[in-house]
Amino acid sequence: MDHTQVKQTHRTYHHQKRILVTGGAGFLGSHLCDHLLADGHDVLCVDNFFTGNKQNIRHILQNANFEFLRHDITFPLYVEVDDIYNLACPASPIHYQFDPVQTTKTSVHGAINVLGLAKRVKAKVLQASTSEIYGDPHQHPQQEAYWGNVNPIGLRACYDEGKRCAETLFFDYHRQHHLRIKVARIFNTYGPHMHPNDGRVVSSFIVQALKGEPITVFGDGSQSRSFCYVDDLIDAMVKLMNTPDDFTGPVNIGNPDEYSVLELARNIIRLTGSKSQIIHKPLPEDDPLKRKPDITMAKKHLGWTPKIGLEEGLEKTIAYFRAFIQK
Ligand code: NAD
Ligand code: UDP
Ligand code: UDP
Q1: Atom of ligand 2 nearest to the CA of 77
Q2: CA gyration radius, the chain
Q3: Distance set, CA 194 to CA 47, 151, 240, 323 (Å)
Q4: Ligand 1: centre distance to CA 90 (Å)
Q5: Ligand nearest to the CA of 110
Q6: Cβ atoms of residues 295 and 254 within 8 Å
Q7: Distance from the first to the final alpha carbon of the chain
Q8: Which of 159, 173, 190, 229 is catalytic?
Q9: What is the pLDDT of residues 266-315, one digit of tens each?
Q10: Is 221 a pocket residue for ligand 1 (Cβ < 6 Å)?
Q11: Among 26, 55, 191, 276, which is least packed, fewest CB within 10 Å?
Q12: CB-ligand 2 contact for 79 (6 Å cutoff)
């Protein structure tokens, strides 16, 4: 090893952190692990494989800086780390409604365990919260100061209220125990590694279009969402983790370009060159009418704006699912 190599190793060592990613084998978590490894960190991925899978992390399993632990975050976890990204929680309605009690436990008991861990080892901890905490919003676009409009006893409540309670716990541990916290309110994100059968709109429409099956638009398709490509989202999460300690958020992270579900369906049909027809199915209970983040705070505090537009992001995602379906 020559002198330059020694210096290089030395520098990497000093910048290297031990980082825990809960839910690290899921869609967002696996991209986050990739990003943190590429930055030279030592990554511990914890996941119970409820919705995530080994395929998402297979390419990093042999990386010496990567470690996987199969564990359910509703149970205590004793490890020594510097930073924690808490992503463990099923995110698509069909998955989080499959076992709603477990969904609430994952958000609430999971947050308590992660916060207890962060308190013991004095780690910095980031919560993957969600735009769902705004419910079916009366404010548009949604700003962080908006308290939301959530049905506490509906089918989405296990997820929405679980995530709201997790935010409460984060802020109480911050106030009571002086923990360094970051809360990211993530808006609809899409990209490679999404679960092909998770019922989320982008993955569902792409898989239906590629298979030539009918595209299932719920309701008349006039409800809107704003779709962020995964690389932009991960970039923002890492920037948020590295903001000064006095910045806690909550901060909206998402792409403010808003599309109706019908527009999304038409775009996906065009980009895949599919002959699929659009069919309409009933709108699910408590389905928010519109959703679009106000990202003024993210721009100011993270110096971040999304760079990848819908068409470019859809093309990358379509390429992933095309290869996935052919396997
Ligand atoms: P995902 O379902 O792909 O990932 C969640 C991961 O958590 C999976 O790998 C799953 O196996 C794991 N998990 C679930 N319960 C667990 C438990 N009890 N213990 C350990 N691991 C558990 O979903 P995603 O889209 O990657 O979402 C990641 C996080 O981001 C979630 O917390 C979600 O609420 C949040 N989020 C995502 C979006 C989005 O559009 N993708 C939007 C808002 C918030
Ligand atoms: N905990 C954990 N790992 C740790 C420390 C704590 O999983 O390294 C769990 C612990 O089981 C507890 C929870 O985190 O149930 C909350 O911890 P805290 O110290 O805040 O509360 P207490 O232990 O006083 O109930
Ligand atoms: N949606 C749809 N067809 C589908 C799946 C979803 O029309 O096959 C609609 C759904 O009703 C909602 C929007 O797409 O209005 C986004 O749904 P998703 O489950 O992806 O996310 P969320 O509702 O949590 O934003």
Answers
A1: 7
A2: 20
A3: 16, 27, 23, 13
A4: 4
A5: 1
A6: yes
A7: 42
A8: 159
A9: 999 999 999 999 999 999 988 888 899 999 999 999 999 999 999 999 99
A10: no
A11: 55
A12: no
- Does the CA dihedral 27-239-41-23 come out positive or negative? negative
Residue of 140, 185, 123 lying closest to 160 (CA atoms): 185
CA of 167 to the centre of ligand 3 (A): 24
The response to whether residue 78 sits with its C-beta less than 6 Å from ligand 2 reads yes
Q: Whose CA is nearest to atom 21 of ligand 2?
A: 116
Q: Is 176 exposed, middle or buried (0-12, 13-18, 19+ CB in 10 A)?
A: exposed
Residues in the chain, overall count:
327
CA 175 – CA 190 distance, rounded (Å): 34
CA 74 to chain centre: 19
pTM of the predicted structure, to 2 decimals = 0.95
Q: Are 231 and 202 in contact (CB under 8 A)?
A: no
| Nearest protein Cα to ligand 2, atom 20 | 116
- CB 117 less than 6 A from any atom of ligand 2: yes
User: 175 CA to middle of ligand 3, Å?
Assistant: 36
Whether 202 is in the pocket of ligand 1, judged by its Cβ within 6 Å, is: no
Q: Is 221 helix (H, G, I), strand (E, B) or coil?
A: coil
How many Å apart are CA 97 and CA 116, to the nearest integer?
27
Closest-CA residue, ligand 3 atom 11, reads 218
Question: Which tens digits make up the pLDDT trace of 67-102?
Answer: 999 999 999 999 999 999 999 999 999 999 999 999
251, two tokens: 């901060």
The residue among 142, 154, 184 whose CA lies nearest residue 287 is: 154
159 is catalytic: yes
Distance of alpha carbon 198 from alpha carbon 94, whole angstroms: 7
Please name which ligand lies nearest the alpha carbon of 176.
2
Answer for the pair 101, 94: CB distance below 8 angstroms, yes or no. Answer: no
Count CB atoms within 10 A of the CB of residue 279: 12
3-state helix, strand, coil in the chain (%, to 5): 45, 20, 40
Q: How far is the CA of 168 from the centre of ligand 2 (A)?
A: 17
